[in-house]
Every structure is written in structure tokens, then in C-alpha cells.
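We give this protein:

***
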Amino acid sequence: MSRAMTRIRRCVLPGATCLALAAGLATAQTPRDDEGVFPPWQQGRNNDATDRGLAFTVPEIDDLADFHGDLTDPKLVLFVGGNYFFAMAPLVAEFEREHPDYKGRLYWETLPPGLLIKQMQAGGRVTSGNMTWTVKPDAYFAGLKKIEDYIRSGLLAAPAVPYVVNTLTIMIPKDNPAHVTSLADLGGRSIRLAMPNPAYEGIVRQIEAALRKAGGEALAEAVYKTKVADGTTVLTHIHHRQTPLFLMQGRADAGVTWQSEAIFQEQAGHAISHVDIPADQNATAIYAGAMVRAAAHPQAARLWLDFIHSGPALAIFERYGFKAYHAATGGASTPQGD
């Protein structure tokens, strides 16, 4: 028996009132969000598999949004910091156009860089929902500083290959109901925030630096300590998925993300906008990659590392607001970690 019918039988109010309450209950149980709000957001384009067999994806219910491609016999495995998951479909398509032998033979993950490292430390083993599998990357991509650290520790093989830079923005719902206009506003008690978790996501270092530039240590502590304690800051596990979703669901008023993520959401037609952060308060990230030591497909890894800073690849990144990295100017105002 449905919950609505059970309520009707137990209701001691007049019959019409009971029916109205039951109808209200039924309405409340109906998902309020359009299916397009939920990841994955790219209708299968972030998958280069040529034979997909049974196509079964139910947004919010049954999907693996940050795992892509065919694990059967990949010729190149990439672990990519998730903040440009949306660029991977056109990047892979261009790479396979230039190297047709790899068509349908790439597998890539776009989890936060810290989680990808944990997977690597677990021998490539990962569990999502009821599924467990093992896959070891040929190349790893994160912030330049982290790439250099992992080369020194022996996890990755030199050289580090930087390719693009990115800056922060404040992601907001399209109608900006909380009227957020600056980083300083994020310390307000009434502003509900979705913020990256320092335990998983390197972007927090840049965000905290930006908050200190905008409002000193008091603002950084308000956002990442006081508001976490009182529940008005929710910490994410995977901000490039959770922050826009929480905003579209009305569960948060703002969140700091990379500029490119907000641009993608706007291009996708989602009810998302952003507030620019002034240059003197912002932080610039340098994205880089390197081959994993003892990679199973070293030649393929080198091909991708050559490709990632090529003209065609940079043109794809520029669609989402990234800029090419230039060694002469660097591009990092704080150490990049995400």
C-alpha cells in the first residue's frame, strides 16, 4: 500500500481534508528537479567507446559521471583533475582524429586530483556504488606544484608538462536570489555556501588565499570554520559536480569554483551564472601533467602530453575560459594544487 493511501486510512480529519493531505504528500514525493539538472551533463559525449551495448543511465539514480570509456582493453588511461571534465570529450575526439589508432581505446577518470592519488596508492583499485575495478593510469594531470612534488617522490616521471591556466569565480544560481556580489559577501550568516573540501580538493588553497585577500583571516575563517560549524557552509567531496547541482536545487546560494566550470554550466543552458573576482583578489592555477612511472602505455602517454599543449588542444580549452600557459609569465599567483 502506498504511503499516501496509508495516510488516508489513518487520517481522522474530514474526508476532503484527508484527500488534500494525501495529494500534497504525493506531490512532495515527486522529484522537483528536471532530469537534465543531474549529472552526467553531456549525454554520453564523454565516452569514446564505439560499441556501447545496452545504454542504461538514469540521472541521479544510476550513473558513473566521472568514469569514461571502455575498460576492456584501453590503449591509453588518463587520470585528469575533474575541473575540466567537460573539455575531455572534444579533447579526446581531436586526439583520436590525429591518432586514429586510438579511436575508442581511451579510458579516463575526472575525480578530484587528491582522490585520484588515493586510487593510485590503492593500486588503481576503486569502488563506486556496487562496482569495484582496477585501472592504472598512464598519465596524471593536476596542478603544476603537485605534479612536481609527485615527480620528486617517484610516483611520476619527468618532465612536468604545463599547458593552461585558470582563475577562480563565484558560481551562483542564474537569478542570484541571495544578491552575492563579492567574496566578502560569502561570510554573511544568511548566505548558504557549497565549498570544496580541503580533505579532497586542492582548489581550497587558492580559495583560502583569495578570501584572505578580500577580507583577511576573518573572512577565510568565517567561510571555512564558523559557517562549516553552523551548517551554512556545506563541504563537497567533488565540487565540479556538487556545487552546480546544489545551486540548481536551491540548496546553496553560492560557491567558489574555477571560472571554466561556471562557463561550462552556462554554455550547457543550466540555471547557473557567476560573479567575477577582481584580479587583485583572485588566484591563478597552472595545470600540468606527467607520465606515471612504469606506465603500461608510455608511448601513448607521451603522445597525449605532446597533444595537451598543442594548438588544437589549447583552442578547445579556450572555449571554456582557460588561457595557454606561457613559461615566461608563469601564471600562478599562489601554488596550484587542484
